[in-house]
Amino acid sequence: MRYTFLTSLIVGLGLIPGLTKAQDVLTTATPDLLVRSLNPVLAQKEKTRGLKIVGAKDLEMVNSYGDTLAATVNLAVNFHFGSAELTPQAERLLDNVGTALQSSDLASYRFVIGGHTDAAGTDDENLDLSRARAASTTRYLLTHYKIDPRRLVLRAFGETALLFPADPEDGRNRRVEISTLK
Predict the structure, then answer these.
(1) 152 and 113 in contact (C-beta within 8 Å)?
(2) pLDDT band at 155 (very low <50, low <70, confident <90, very high)
């Protein structure tokens, strides 16, 4: 347990250069790491101290819906192939997300839950699948955690925002992004 925490902390803070990339999709994340990654104030402090939050994109971006985002974390929320059914591994990751979203440090923020797919399949199928996966993720968080539904905004991106455009069918493109709305 202690080793896992230490490893998460070292990787999460980017203390080992070259081990992680800004486009990493997190397969595990502690609630504390998620709070620090999704709270724009805390994320900015760590950025200015030279620390890198793994899985977090640069601050202040606008998505294709016109939402201004203050911080984003890419999560490897796993689903059964071609479905929106969460796997047990996904539920464990979302349990940490739910705990983080209940934190007093994030209580005043709203979040975009964005579903993404890889480029396998048609555009329409991928958009529908990403919408279903974002809805499944949102439903899990609302059902298992005391989060005001007005704090979560569902978005579907299909294959329009690939993390790895050079490899459009790379499984890391299939993900759920959680972004803090500005």
Answers:
(1) yes
(2) very high
Two tokens, residue 182? 């500005």
Average pLDDT over residues 135-157: 97
In sequence order, the β-bridge partners of residue 116 are: 158, 175
The structure tokens 């486009």 sit at 23
Which token pair is 2?
A: 């202690």
Give the residue, 72 or 82, on which the prediction is more confident: 72
Q: Which helix (H) or strand (E) holds 62?
A: strand 61-62
CB 140 within 8 A of CB 69: no
Both tokens of 79, joined, read 């689903």
Mention every residue, 6+ apart, whose C-beta is less than 8 A from residue 76: 25, 26, 27, 93, 172, 175
Contacts of 64 (CB under 8 A, 6+ apart): 157, 160, 161
| Strand (E) or helix (H) holding 158 | strand 152-158
Instruction: Determine the Cα–Cα distance for residues 9 and 32; give it in Å rounded to an integer.
Output: 9
Q: CB under 8 Å, gap of 24 or more: what pairs does 120-128 form?
A: 120/169, 123/158, 123/159, 126/158, 126/159, 127/156, 127/157, 127/158, 128/156
